[in-house]
Amino acid sequence: MASLDLFSPGDYTPAAGAYVCDCAEGHLWRIDMAGHVFPTFPPRCGARTWRTDQLAEVRDQDPEQIGPRPLP
Asked: For residue 50, which phi and psi values (nearest 5 degrees)?
């Protein structure tokens, strides 16, 4: 997916990650999995689209080896 992909409120998210609106404030919206619906923009936000900011890292892991994640 190119970093210039643009989405409108009501579109379905193609991937987990962070999306930012195109207004001067750059509101950030993070999701944990694909298939969520992009929300409407916050009050007084002049944005027209959401764009991909950072896609989540997807790793194949053995479920037996998944344990608690260390705090950052």
From this structure: -105, 145
